[in-house]
Amino acid sequence: MDTTHDHRRANLTTGADHKGVNRPLELLDENEIRLLDEAMRTSHRTVLGYRNRLAVRLMAGAGLRISEVLSLTPASIDPMTGNIRVTGKGGKTRITRLPAADMPLLRSWIKRRPDGATMLVCRQDGSPMEASAMRQTIKRAAARAGIRKEVRCHSFRHRFAVTLANDNVPVPHISRLLGHSSVATTQHYLAGLSLEDALDALTERVTV
User: Fold this and answer.
1) Is 5 a catalytic residue?
2) Residue 106 domain-assigned (yes or no)
3) Per annotation, catalytic residue among 18, 34, 89, 148
4) Domain of residue 118, residue span
């Protein structure tokens, strides 16, 4: 019996899903992120593709929890700097930043989001969106993209932490961006990084 796949899954970062069950997290590589983004771009004839892509960028590129993404208003993000004011667990406020490359997508969605909507990420009728609905939207997009890994919202946040660590950002800084109350929590995120993930991260880095 080939146990290679099971061994690899066991070494990946773990985390609780939205039902509180601890299961292995599988981090998407750069190509899989691109495939997911493309599936979201082409799957909707409406403006919802902008919304869905932005939600993923906020998790993978700025380290937000899905609950934090859905609690943002347009005023939460500085349109000049990309700085995001986030209210996280325990009502704690922190500042993180949306990458500059994702700012055009943010502006495109804001132009197209429903009139009268309060939240940044919302339903087509402008009403607030539930986390379960966004999770299902992302899972369906991943299936259309042919991604065989189990794609969970929290895995994007872990990928954010791993990417910063691979860029030699000090763990205390990563911890602050994630809104962790303890650096030990951040270290737990990084301790589960498998050899395969580390090698993939090295392959994806651009050198000159």
Assistant:
1) no
2) yes
3) 89
4) 26-204
